[in-house]
Protein 1
Amino acid sequence: MKFDYAEKSANVKADALLVPVYEGKGLNAYKYGAQLAALYHKADFEGKAGTQLLLHKSDAVAADRVHLIGLGKSDKSGPQQLGEAIAGFFRSGAVNTSKLSHVAIALEAAKGKDEEIGRWCAEGALLGDYHFDVLFSKADKKKHHAKTVTLAGGKAGKLKQGVAYGEVTAQYTAHCRDLVNEPSNRINPATLAKFAQDMAKAVPGLKCKILHKPEIEKLKMGAFLGVNAGSDIPAHLIVLEWHGGKKSDAPIAYVGKGLCFDSGGYDIKPAAGMLGMKMDMGGGAATICALGAIGKLKLKVNAIGIVPATENLINGAAYHPGSVLTSMSGQTIEIGNTDAEGRLILCDALTYAQREFKPRVIVDMATLTGAQVVALGNKVTGLMSNDDKVANGLEKAFKAVGEEVWRLPLPDFYDKQLDSTIADMQNIGGNPGTVTAALFLQRFIDKGQKWAHLDIAGPCMNDSDGWRLWSSKSATGTPVRPLVEFAENY
Ligand code: BES
Ligand code: MN
Ligand code: ZN
């Protein structure tokens, strides 16, 4: 998809012109508004957010057809709502069924800074148009994609800057979606590492290092290796580095769970629970792709991405319920449940991040607990942190990109539920499961180290209809955009 610019929306000879409409405001903002308004009854389209109406061949505009897209109430509608309305159009199937190759967007009535408008137009169009169709063998199953999007009626210069930014965030979010949507026989610890390396090669200045099993053994990452023991594919530790800031500045470290398939291990998951578990590397995919976007945007920050990648499978060497593992930190862990594996691979990655990089803040993200889905559903990420400023920064970052997060507490009185009678701790801590998982991770955070944890078990994969910029029944790519935003502003 390519973006270009035009002065007047009425003159663009596109297959379709999107005309954004504020709720109850009609089409007065457009020169051709009265002519279009005569084509439908007011009650047919009020401009409510999420609605659209197709109008065929009006002489008022050069485009073949017009799609009115609702923005909702004008006092609550800015670039974000415009982007979401655009995403809704691209997701609706109109591009595919009508084989629209050239779509124009009328920006005469758009409110907000042109740079923001450009960014949200690009993100809305690209992410709304996202489909994971690479695995269909037949051409007719592949979706038709729009090739050109013309932004018409705005200031081209500023719009262009915003589009350039939005193209990057959207493309890396789409990469993240691809990685999560890909089945686990195609994306495994080795191919995930290969993706990170190839991605880094395409971004000047972005470094990628893969630590293989012998090096992971040398680092004594016994918790990570314990999970990996049951898999024929050796563990990979993916390390990405972006140095866009001052040499002396401590970096932000992102750490993502790269569990390429979670069978549960000997505490095996029931079939229905196992089916979706290719997505258990969603936090890792987001970490990799956020670093890609940060590098591509040349953000003036230092940022690190660390992804422990393995599968959680069963064989004669797999760890057992009751096994005791020694983590890189030296702390010993009794395995209360082999399905609580995410925290085991993360705890060693957190130790590595602190020892190797002395980060000014660590944010880890993981599809960590089913309890997160129970508590917050699939649209709201769980946030836990030992620092209010970090938590506020993340809340701001999510809000800025139109995603949702909710902070949960980390009270120390739940921490003792992690105690074990034979080791320093066990890997399960009872209810509330999302919080005790985070409290487990916190045991690996050094004194004074700022840290936040994002549980994306629900939001990683959207199994219902599309929403905001998310696609339907497919990976969402969260939290790539919040992570880029946080890196830029924290
Ligand atoms: N990957 C799962 C969590 C998960 C569940 C993600 C559903 C997405 C959707 C994780 O490894 C897991 O199995 N967690 C267990 C922990 C329990 C054994 C303490 C869970 O939440 O049931
Ligand atoms: Mn598990
Ligand atoms: Zn898991």
Note: The chain has two domains: 2-171, 187-489.
Protein 2
Amino acid sequence: MKAVLVIADGLGGRPSDCQGRSCLEAARTPTLDELAHRGAVGLVDPIRHGVRPGSDTAHLSLLGYDPYEVYTGRGAFECLGIGMKVVCGDVCFRANFATAEAVSDGLRVLDRRAGRIDAGQQLLAEALDGIALRSDREITFEFRASTQHRGALVLRGPGLSRHVSENDPHEAGVLIPDSRPLINDEAAERTASLVDELTRKSFEAWDDHPVNRDRRAAGEPPANVLLLRGAAELPDLASIEKLYGVRSAVVAGGALYRGVALAAGMASIPCPGATGGLDTDLRAKAAAAVEALVAHDCVFVHIKGTDNAGHDRDADAKTRFIERIDGEFFAPLIEQLDVGSTHIAFTGDHTTPIDFGDHVADPVPVLFVGPNVMPDVCDCFDERSAGNGGLGRFAGRVLPMLLGYCNWSPKFGS
Ligand code: ZN
Ligand code: ZN
């Protein structure tokens, strides 16, 4: 038996998306409709009724974890997702290259994304390497650039705390705020002052760096300061292998989703062409999933573009991308899998309606298909049909349900 979990980020929609129909309803999806015909559909509240999900917390919940118990912030997933080593006690941050100017009372942000810098980040990261942190010689840090203005930072050493405020002001024209301890505790105070120190030292190391001299000469904003947010420790997750005794893997273009899966003990399958955007190579992802199933029992595939189109409030882009998921991902996937011995689950991690442009608490359609799934009467995969589906409405835990159809669930009780 093999299992495939596919999550299209922000898949869910509302009637207001396309004049009375959601994007999923408006999209032509013959493959998904055929799978709905052969399987069963329903509605899932990614976390629980009435909770507006973040992508990280929703994924934890859909994978079977209780985010209220295990979630420690986004930074650790970002660090893991871009291949950094994270150990217990580290505090991880999401980082931005930003543009700032020195003023009398601090540093003022001019551009939070340094003009979406797309070259030279590696050289800037190297210029931070080896900088000693003032008071705390026993504290080390590692900074790594990822895509464009994004990066991640790990602080390592004794007595650190994730309970510190971010110093990203989320707007331009204002001073970079000091990081503050969020609890009354020496470790939080120390970590907050380290965040401030790192930000100051990044400005010292970068403002006159050759990369930025070139950027200024070309009329581009310098990437001269580091903003830090999403402080997190490594969450304590029992691995999928420990919980279910199966080998699992992830195919994802976005670092966050790879990070969540890695924290759950999945192996990351490289997939060139998976961009985490609307331009991703969906056929390559289907091929990577099929390949992953040779050495693994279960593969989780994350597809991000649906959410990007939702945040961009672009109904056409979301509808077209759903049609591509149908034709370029699911069609080749089921052609290459042995459908007699594979269970597939497909859902979203939340609803991202076009007119709202952000995540809402509405439930998301979910589909299960495979030899052990009792088919229901629905033969269409969308929000409206899913409301009449045989699976009813439930909260989270899609992966445990999928593994249950494969007969891999441990028994609770005797
Ligand atoms: Zn999401
Ligand atoms: Zn989103």
Note: The chain has 15 helices and 13 strands.
Protein 3
Amino acid sequence: MTPFSRRVGILGAGQLGRMLAIAGYPLGHKFGFYGLNHDEPAAMLGHMHVQSDEAHSLSQLIDFADVITYESENTSVELVEKISQTTPVYPSATSLYYSQHRGREKSLFTELNIPCAPYTLVSDLTELHQAVDMVGLPAILKTSTEGYDGKGQFVITQTDQIEQAWSSIGEREAILEGFVEFKRELSIIAVRNADNQQVYYPLVENQHHDGILRLTIAPARQISPAIQQQAEDYMQALLNKMDHVGVLTLELFETETGLVVNEMAPRVHNSGHWTMDGAQTSQFENHIRAITNLPLGATTPRQSFAAMVNIIGQHGDIKTVLNMPNAFLHLYDKAERPGRKLGHINVVANTQAELQTRLDQLKAWMP
Ligand code: AMP
């Protein structure tokens, strides 16, 4: 045990928990997980407490841990509040409360003068009709909670689709959001520790297909210092307001008139996986440093250009990646299944042309 070794408990044992542990061991920490079963990606990386024996296994994780974090914004706020009475949980229940509900998240953005799409909360079909009148079309209907990778969403372009939209999202509490005509989708990752040290990664550019992230380019191309600063200012307002400790991710749209915020996540994020090989300190290490109150590491890119390509559904010919210079393979030990995130490939380059060459060689992994 070093003086700053901590036992870190993670609620969840998927690939994010796996990569958090891999980043945390060099700091001398130990890990435990509260997950679904012993086949999950993180299961072999620390003490695994399986949920089937709910009360017992969770209390074992709490007994083990000096500090607890979580993998998903869908973690129960009540559970985090309860654990916090005995063991610190970061990010706190406050960050979770805002991030897991689109309505609360949007009202927070509005309160902090952070621009987002016009929206209205809807809880039944009548309200949805009224919301369409207010917000206008096209618009996106999104469930208030538990949407991810584009699930629980319906794009309404004509009024005769309103009923179909309502039934398609399961007739649940939702928000109707104005459609944003964006040029690109961007995201930014910030980290704050309990001493209020704050660091920001550069804005990155994200390309999705069927609601799933497929490619991140880091840093995003042609971003002015003023736009980077704008994104950092939004982040700083959110970090301070929520007294956030750990990584916070903000997804944004770049429009003709500036940045429009989409949503935030109180956790390490797929659009930050490039940092494992492309930045001085990865988002995973910085999250662990933040929640164990260590100084945060530099977020500067190691090389001029980096990209991350997700491996979705099938692994493909991974030997191509292993034979490629400046390419780094990260697999999550998951079985192949359509639409499933199985791993990712990071590439770094000194020139834009070199980055493009690498991406051309990785076409098989892109839609
Ligand atoms: P979300 O789950 O909110 O991240 O939405 C998934 C994807 O839907 C985003 O990555 C965008 O491509 C698209 N999208 C979400 N909200 C909007 C919007 N208000 N206007 C246009 N596209 C959107």
Note: DSSP finds twelve helices and 17 strands in the chain.
Protein 4
Amino acid sequence: METMRWESDTLVLLDQTRLPLELKYIYCRDHHQVAEAIRNLRVRGAPAIGVAAAYGLVLGVDAARCSTRREFLERAREVAGELALTRPTAVNLSWALRRMLDRLENAPESDPGALRGILLAEAHAIFVEDLETNRAIGRFGQELIPSGARILTHCNAGALATAGYGTALGVVRAATAAGKKVSVFASETRPLLQGARLTTWEMLQEKIPVTLIADNMAASLMARGGVDLVIVGADRIAANGDVANKIGTYGLAVLAEAHGLPFYVAAPLSTVDFSLAEGGQIPIEERDPAEVTHLAGRSVAPPGVRVWNPAFDVTPARLVTAVITERGVAYPPYGESLARLCK
Ligand code: MRU
């Protein structure tokens, strides 16, 4: 399965809004198409939107229309600004765009064609590094997983949410590859059903045992002793270890604590935002009410009803057992452990 690829100056994206019923790729030839794809969750998941935005920046700057280095840089900043506005919570988006602009600003070249080549090479590097990062997260994370573990995950933090392999599901993949007979519970993840549509699909493809539950079944499952640990991804982690992830994650963390279960977060260090002291400062995206009032295009609520539709919530660091990164596992206090891993 390929979340995205670069082919003949085109960003080819697997349209995740169509999964699992249709396997359809979309072909983005300008940055407006990439922005639309990110905004409407055709490509989604924190690392994946960072990589897609990096390629989007390459598509947005037409070297032939820039006669000077200054013009090229100005255009690149403008396009990066537009792409950065598409989704506010996942810090990987602005992280990737900042990295692209830094690379450009530090390049001595003056020819716009050469500058575009530098941008493209940087986007490829972000893609490749994300894949390597996820494999490293998998290696560190699988050591925490006992053989036979029944793992509850939320949303989709898999290959689809990244350049490949996944973060939370990367740990599941690595544990499976290590011969541990793990199984997964996927919570459906209302309102957009990333768990039901995407996580189950990924696990079935790999023949990793998976059971789908509705979001409101997790407490009951834990009370029956059906879960051994919870593992999720992250969209942004504040310096103190507070974690923003898909709405519903906080509830699962509270439940895990109430049932004495470990609650792990698997994420690359690029997801840690050291500029924010705590999770209350993380911007939380609010989305179209129609995502809640409608299911598969059909209304399930009275017309005009008031809706609150935050896409993410914040899990306080005290509920997080450990953060699994590509450089190792961070334990509380996160203010120190995460900073140490980043040195
Ligand atoms: O709204 P989405 O589908 O982009 O939300 C995705 C998540 O919340 C993931 O858990 C997170 O981005 C981590 S993906 C490795």
Note: The chain has a mean pLDDT of 97.
